[in-house]
Design goal:
Length: about 700
Amino acid sequence: MLNFIIKSESFRKQFFLLLLITFVHYPSYLHSGYNFHGYIIDNNHHSISYVYINNITKNIQTISDEFGNFTLPNSSSGGDSILFSRIGYHNFRIQISDSTTNLIINLIPNPVNLDAVTVENNFNKSNSSQNSFMEISKSITSSSMEHRQFFSSIPGAYLKSYGGSAGITTLSMDGAPGRHTKIQIEGFDVTNSQNGQVDISQLPTPFINNIIYNSYQNNPENGQLSDGSIEIKPWQNGNSIAIGTGSHGQWNAHGLLHFQKKNWNFNILSGKQYNKGNYPAKNPISDKTINRKNNHFTQDFFSLRLNSCFSNSSFLKILYLFSKQERGVAGQIWSPTPESFRNDDLQIFGANYGWINKFGTGQIRMLTRNSKDHYVNKPQDGYPVDSEHKVNTTNMILKQQIILHKYFSPLFIFDIKHDNMMSKDAGEHNRIAYNSTVNLPLKYKLFEFDPNFNYSQSPDLFTEETWNLSSSITIPSRFTKKITFNIGEYFHYPSFNDLYWQPGGNENLKPEFTNNLSLEFILNIIQQSDLKIMLYQKESENLIQWMPSQSYWLPKNVKNSVRKGGKFIYSFRGDKIPFNCFFNYSYNYSQDKSKGISHNKILRYSPRHSGGINMEFNPGNWKFHYQIQYTGERIALYSWPNDVILPELIEHFVSFAYSWNMNFGKITIVNSIDNLTNERYETIRGYPEPGRVVKFNLIYELKKK
């Protein structure tokens, strides 16, 4: 069935068939899908993983995720009785109402006896949403946001795009290369081993529901530690149809379908978006404004999520995503490539089987990631290019927690990962890597001590040992909530492109090593608000950066570099008024300590100052959203006598929506304006972004039965 949907050339027919199924085949499961969600915590406000959730009234079940987040079984409605159960905790039962929006469930520990050892199942994850540095969720008014605005809300994040919706887009944190930031979907690492990064433009906009940012990665599951991790949570349950149109000839359409059969939950997302993509841009060499052409973008996508609870002690989760992109490649503004194009596919399949018993919790995860990229350039002058790359990754992760004492529950992780690249330019290459991790968390009441030891090995390539230590204390005072200290090290082996790309690959590259030190504070200045502060220092050896060399770019090791600074987030949640806002600011001082033209200069594409404000106001059926994002100036290219500088940028995004509740469902109209002040800017030198973009979206959510 999946192969038929994916490989069929009549993708559009399949999409509309899906919408027809949504209306006709599953009428008993139709609902709006935006109510009845929340998270589960214990007495110390630690999140609780994998809680069995049973809608007793409807006799349907689901399970919370490893971060304690949950969405109640689909078709749940006001008056239903919901039972929360978990080994090591007392059962908790509530009756929900139609006004329920966000539930916070507090489970009381119920110690389990194991041969004279008293055990309390306190399975807190250091990278849970409760302990994460920040979490951002999309609302109906921010649903039309492109990835740039959404991810830019993370303090210290910088998105690099090759111009417009057709441009490949990558994300980096704190001035480091993008490969230092781990991006996961439902716990699956989706990094492209060819370049060590994730092309975010391959992830459909409606696929992403919220993101969780952890400033450090204390429980590594896929190899090395990192500058931080971003966990992407896919769309929530729902049955809806959305269509939209906007500036520069763009339109989009997608449908969501959710249904449940006994203990099996099915979620399907399918859609298409198109952008003609031509927009005016200024050529800095000729100082003339031209129409930037060959920037079209077409994306077809299909995704399936399957969750099943076999009992209150085991579950299965499956995630499938396929996206197909056809892009024009406009080239640099002063060197256009009107005949170039790129076609690329991404296919991800992940399965996660987990279990819970009186000895602890365990998981086995399997992931396959396949991508194909075909680039063609037919210049009027010079040599034509016809380049094709296929990258396949298979990853297996085995996790087992053993509860030895109510304060001490070691976690053991083993993973094996195989990467294969077949490239016309770089040839065929294989890499297999083994990683073993021992996590020894000691948790006593409000104090946590969490050491982590990691052993990574790849035959004939590397053998490395790294470590990380975090400790935190929860302070039940009026102003201070929690203080966390983190220290550790991590390394990155060069990607396939770094080593073998032609021309430019450098097989003499050394692995990158980084020492990390950070201190985090969570403060409560006034009610309904939080202030989070993180101070950090990161020193790297052999940081890999691509530099121009004659007529092409070449990766080189930056012998020594340092990055230090601070991040600040202030969030406010309205109690008596429907108003929410958060402010973020990041100061990042980076310095290249190696000799040469870049000595003591800021690292390329590393802004010293960045920040933003997000505000939402939701009176009645109206919803308003406003975002302002600031990015300081960046060095795009080291040069003499002056470096090439990208100027500072202030960008505004505004949207408003109105909803009608009707007998047959809910209709919402969303209008948005991106780049309100029509700023002309670049995130990569030579690749201008569009100016003001106006969008109109119509969303129909089917009524709950």
